[in-house]
Amino acid sequence: MKAKKFTTISIPTQLADKARGMIANTGFTSLSSFVEYVLRDIVVNSNSKEKKKKLDVSDVEEKLRRLGYL
Description:
Elements: H1 13-23, H2 31-47, H3 57-66
C-alpha cells in the first residue's frame, strides 16, 4: 500500500483559531483533520451529478450547522 503524501496549506491565523474553536469537544483530533474533512466534503459534493449548483459560504455554514459544528 502506498503511503499518503501530504502538503502544507496556509490559512489566516484568525480563521485557524475560529476553526479550532469549532472543533473543540468533537471527534476531530486536529485542525488538519477538520480541514481535510471539510475540503473532501466540498469536493465530493461539488462533483456530484445530483448537485450541479455552486456551493457558497452559506451552503458550507448550513452543512456545518446541521452537523453540530456551528
